[in-house]
Specification:
The structure holds 4 protein chains of 4 kinds. Chain A is of the alpha/beta class. Chain A has helices spanning 72-79, 109-115, 130-141, 146-159, 163-166, 179-192, 209-222, 235-241, 264-269, 274-280; strands spanning 32-43, 46-57, 61-65, 89-97, 100-101, 116-119, 197-201, 227-231, 244-250, 256-263. In chain A, helix 3 (130-141) runs parallel beside helix 6 and helix 4 packs across helix 6. The longest helix of chain B has 33 residues, at 172-204. The chains are: A alpha/beta, B mainly alpha, C mainly alpha, D alpha/beta.
């Protein structure tokens, strides 16, 4: 439905120019947005992730599942170079965003993070007002007149399905919201800078089922515009909310590896790998 | 934000539509397989039977995926289970119809038996109202529908008795075909009873033999 | 262990233990009486802790009481009027002039100078330590900073007098800078307070959860933007608390000012001349030979009371800020 | 089934605010009872009122709670002893920053539950019952904080049962664990229920459905007090809920 005449993969909202660093390429729904080719991640001498080959498809939800310590979060955080902030972390292999290597020497990690946003496990709104939380990322990039900023804030909060709940208290601290609302605020904040990919690191693990379903529904509506990668411990969540699913496992040398990748329904009904089968059916070790 | 679980709801609706599709197919197949006026093509009925199987497989596959990925509970879970059972019953009905068509495609004599035509009409209305009950989740209507199966049972007995005791006994092939046709129609009625049981199960969560008057009374009390 | 066999009391106990071991192995519950019984240890501890709490309150009250009583004596003596105390421009007990203003301005001047040094340097050090320094650098730097806090103030005083003052005089001209001047004292006092402001601010900055930094970085902020738009505001209440404690320290500091700032009350805001601060005055006069009944003696308590009032005000302001800017994360 | 804990018209308050309204509920002996419901419906408050843990944060209770024949809120009852008979496992694994061995031995010594020379045996038997012995038997002196999350949580359970409680309360014990850790805790609960009465608060509906025998469904009323809207056997609650709100909740449809 998105013809080749639409050159920009995220909706062309007026307030932000295409980012520096890597040029955006034409994309269609379901095309590979990010491609990982033999990606390995090391912390010092320790290999946390070995030879991952994976495609993150545009406007689809890709879930990453696997037991604790299998390198799911490491994988996720390598996608937007968040691992750079960890000393001694090194990435090998090629990690392509629209065909350009994210780990190329002249690529600015800050620019990568603007295109690949992130939502964390625990809701972490800034200790600022709800309004300022959303405005923060936009202000980093350019000065926005008050009225325009109002529009951006409203739009992002609407997109994050939070507007109706907070429209009367935008000046209240983001910390006064409930856990689920905080997480949606974090999502609003992430989409305010108009990323192309949104990474979510167990976004619902601290939330109750109601808030969880809200976030899942939100993901479904966000996937119209963004590629989403979600790491989750909750197999039910992975199975009902994702389009593609990557199963990871820890090898005997404690490095994480990808053991199966495919469409979610197939992975949950007819897994190809015995370990995946055991894991999704709840029979572990 | 009232639309939570849209994926599950979507699949449940698809299942429901497929069941209704099969239901109306069964209805028209009953009609065509024993049509007293027109000449029915076996090919058409067989093709219908194949389509029934296809739809049933589709429903089963979808239900399996729902169970694996959507984790339905409570009524949703019952909906999925019921859909699988009902699809299976409808598929059997379709095959009964193709059996009837095969028996009578070239024999107008049997088709003209009034009692068979009566059974045919009855099986059609039963199928129809079982689908009504399914759509509305109406346990009461389901129980009423199941109760009407007795008519088919009695009709078949009546047919056997009259055919075997009458002076102008038809030729053996006709006799056998008529009896087999009645048998098939009676089986369709049993399938409808099973469907109705599943409708009651879906609506109330209780599963018991709807053809037994005792359980019927008990259930009428509990569902009222 | 020999005694156990004949001590019937211990024998009974060991029997009790034995039955409990059985309970563990057999997975059976021993019924436990849940009714209240005295626990003497608990009571004693509660009493002791309460006593300590009460003692600290009593000490404060005692100090306030003594200060107040003596200050009251001062204010009730015929030579003194309350209005004169606050509005008078000269402090000359020997001349019967008790205007607090010269002492207050000197205290304020030195403190302001000190804070002008301590706040930027302390904050910068804190930001560096918590945000930029590699773990190795932090390991080296923090002890160095803390060492600065361990230097006795008298050493600072001599440092001011024998190093900073000559330096200032050579820089700004002998005729402009007096031998005893508030600038030198204030600067050195600032250096003394740097570790205090720095380490409290550093604690506050480090307490900001990593998740907030990552949230900001994840939105495409640079490290500098993250530090100053997210981390520092989030730690603001702690930083302000550190600054206010630093000011209190500056206001209360005695040794440096009495050595380097001069020994005569002087109503001026010019930092290049000498003046005596409240603390410096108290130290100088109380070191002298005063009769307990003299007005000079009681005047010290009035000055002390004033000092106490300033510090208290600062503490209250600090509490207000801490609450006002508390950003719970 | 014997009733181990009985709640009769229990109301829980924080100051004037009523957090739980009128819960009457039997907790059956050697069964697992799950409490489910949305955030803020008073699940944890109710759980904590059972071992008088809510008193520590200024909570109070109206109504009566019975452990067998003993009223837990009778004036002569010592809350500290109540907490020994009704142990608790928390959402986040919270082992003491000491060795694995010490984590268990600590409470045993504190309450003089075993002689000195028997503590080794007690530690072993508790670790065995918490299905942790095989994994840690060679590193009992290691700090408990070095264990994985799931192991820490099992250690906390071992620590709790070392005090020989009658009832074990669990407040979302698996919220911080991955499916493997969760599976192990659930297996452990099935083991423990032979000897203990277990009450678990959980947000994970699948967990409540597969691991518990009875389920309590709670909901917040308009005045923000939580109330119990359904109690029954788990099978019934998850396949044929009586209350419409329970049906919506367990099938994942929330308003």
């Amino acid at each position: 439905m998105n013809s080749s005449t639409a050159p920009i993969s995220a909706p062309a909202l007026p307030w932000i120019q295409p980012q520096i660093g890597i040029q955006r390429a034409a994309a269609r729904n379901g095309d590979a947005k990010m491609t990982l080719e033999d990606v390995s991640v090391f912390y010092g001498a320790f290999c946390a992730l070995r030879d991952v080959n994976l495609q993150v498809r545009d406007r689809r939800i890709t879930a990453v599942i696997g037991p604790s310590g299998c390198g799911k979060s490491t994988l996720l955080r390598s996608l937007n170079r968040m691992n750079d902030t960890v000393t001694g972390c090194r990435v090998e292999g090629r990690l392509l965003l629209d065909g350009a290597n994210v780990y190329d020497r002249h690529v600015d990690p800050v620019a990568v993070r603007r295109r690949v946003g992130m939502v964390f496990q625990r809701p972490n709104p800034f200790p600022k007002s709800i309004y300022e939380n959303v405005a923060y990322g936009v202000r980093l990039q350019r000065n926005v007149p008050k009225r325009e900023m109002d529009e951006i804030v409203e739009r992002c909060l609407r997109d994050a399905a939070l507007w109706d709940e907070v429209k009367d208290k935008l000046q209240r601290s983001g910390m006064t919201l409930s856990g689920g609302q905080q997480q949606r605020l974090c999502i609003a904040r992430a989409i305010a800078v108009q990323p192309e990919v949104i990474l979510m690191d167990e976004p619902c693990s601290a939330l109750d089922p109601i808030a969880t379903v809200r976030i899942e529904e939100l993901m479904q509506s966000l996937k119209r515009d963004y590629a989403i990668v979600i790491v989750t411990h909750n197999l039910q969540q992975a199975s009902r909310a994702s389009d593609y699913c990557a199963m990871m496992m820890m090898r005997s040398d404690r490095a994480g590896e990808l053991i199966e990748f495919g469409e979610t329904a197939a992975l949950f009904t007819t897994p190809q790998d015995k370990r995946t089968e055991d894991y999704v059916s709840g029979r572990f070790g | 934000m009232q639309k939570s679980r849209s994926a599950l709801d979507h699949d449940l609706t698809q299942n429901r539509e497929d069941i209704l599709r099969m239901g109306s197919m069964v209805e028209s197949l009953i009609h065509w397989s024993l049509n007293s006026e027109g000449v029915v093509s076996i090919g058409q009925v067989t093709e219908g039977a194949q389509r029934g199987t296809t739809i049933r497989e589709r429903i089963e596959k979808r239900s399996l995926q729902m169970l694996a990925t959507q984790h339905p509970a409570a009524r949703d879970l019952r909906c999925v289970i019921a859909a699988m059972h009902i699809a299976r019953e409808l598929e059997r009905s379709v095959h009964h119809c193709s059996g009837i068509a095969r028996l009578n495609a070239h024999d107008e004599e049997v088709r003209r038996y009034a009692i068979l035509q009566h059974m045919r009409e009855h099986a059609m209305t039963m199928t129809h109202s079982s689908m009504d009950a399914y759509v509305r989740g109406d346990a009461k209507l389901a129980l009423e529908t199941a109760a009407r199966d007795e008519v088919l049972d009695e009709s078949r007995t009546l047919l056997m008795r009259t055919m075997l005791t009458t002076d102008s006994q038809p030729a053996a092939p006709v006799l056998l075909r008529a009896i087999w046709t009645a048998h098939n129609l009676e089986r369709i009625g049993d399938r409808v009873v099973n469907i109705c049981e599943r409708v009651v199960f879906e609506a109330t969560g209780h599963l018991s033999d709807a053809s037994l008057p005792a359980s019927r009374r008990w259930m009428e009390n509990t569902t009222a | 262990m020999q005694e156990i066999s004949w001590n019937p009391h211990i024998f009974a106990l060991s029997f009790f233990f034995e039955s409990n071991k059985q309970a563990y192995m057999a997975n059976t519950h021993t019924p436990l009486d849940i009714r209240r019984s005295r626990r003497r240890g608990e009571d004693i501890a509660t009493l002791l802790l309460t006593a300590c709490g009460v003692l600290s309150i009593l000490t404060t009250l005692g100090i306030v009481f003594v200060l107040g009583r003596e200050a009251l004596k001062f204010f009730s003596s015929p030579e003194v009027t309350v209005i004169g105390f606050f509005t008078g421009t000269r402090w000359a007990p020997e001349g019967g002039l008790f205007g607090i203003a010269p002492l207050v301005t000197a205290t304020l001047t030195t403190s302001v100078i000190a804070m002008c040094v301590a706040i930027p340097i302390g904050l910068a050090a804190a930001v560096f330590l918590s945000e930029y320094a590699t773990p190795r650098a932090a390991r080296l730097l923090k002890p160095a900073l803390e060492l600065l806090a361990g230097v006795p103030t008298v050493v600072y005083g001599y440092f001011a007098l024998t190093f900073v003052t000559p330096l200032l005089r050579s820089l700004l001209g002998q005729e402009n800078v007096e031998v005893y001047n508030m600038l030198s004292a204030g600067l050195v006092m600032g250096v003394m307070i740097v570790p205090l402001v720095g380490s409290i601010s550093e604690d506050a900055l480090s307490a900001v959860p990593r998740s907030l930094r990552e949230a900001s970085l994840g939105l495409g902020a640079t490290k500098l933007e993250t530090t100053f738009r997210v981390v520092v505001p989030a730690a603001l209440s702690g930083i302000i608390a550190g600054v206010i404690i630093g000011i209190s320290r500056a206001v209360g500091e005695t040794m440096i000012v009495s050595l380097a700032a001069g020994a005569g009350p002087n109503l001026t805001l010019n930092p290049l001349v000498g003046a005596e601060t409240m603390t410096g005055h108290i130290a100088r006069i109380s070191g002298g030979d005063l009769s307990y009944e003299s007005i000079d003696y009681t005047s010290l308590f009035a000055v002390g009371m004033m000092l106490f009032a300033i510090t208290l005000t600062l503490n209250l302001i600090s509490r207000y800020f801490v609450r006002r800017f508390r950003e719970a994360y | 089934m014997k009733t181990k804990v009985r709640l009769e018209n229990v109301h829980c308050y924080y100051g004037n605010f009523m957090a739980v309204h009128d819960v009457t509920l039997p907790i059956y002996d050697r069964q697992i009872t799950a409490i489910i419901g949305p955030s803020g419906c008073g699940k944890s408050t109710l759980l904590r009122s059972i071992n008088r843990m809510n008193e520590l944060v200024g909570g109070s209770v109206r109504g009566s709670l019975w452990l067998e024949e003993q009223n837990l809120y009778a004036p002569e009852v010592d809350p500290v002893k109540v907490r020994r008979r009704i142990g608790m496992v928390f959402q986040k694994p919270n082992p003491f920053p000491r060795s694995i061995y010490e984590n268990i031995a600590f409470g045993v010594r504190q309450h003089k539950l075993a002689a000195k020379n028997e503590i080794d045996d007690v530690v072993e038997s508790c670790l065995r019952r918490a299905a942790l012995w095989d994994e840690v038997q060679h590193k009992l002196k290691m700090s408990a904080l070095q264990l994985s999350g799931g192991q820490q949580q099992r250690l906390c359970i071992a620590r709790t049962i070392a005090l020989q409680p009658d009832v074990v309360l669990m407040d979302e014990p698996c919220a911080a664990l991955d499916p493997i850790g969760t599976g192990k805790i659930e297996d452990l609960m099935q083991e423990l229920k032979r000897d203990y009465t277990i009450i678990i608060v959980t947000h994970n509906m699948q967990q409540a459905a597969r691991a518990s025998d009875h389920t309590v469904m709670m909901m917040m009323r308009d005045d923000r007090a939580g109330e119990m809207i359904e109690f029954g056997e788990t099978n019934q609650v998850f396949t044929r809920p009586r209350d419409k709100r329970t049906e919506d909740y367990v099938s994942g449809r929330f308003g």
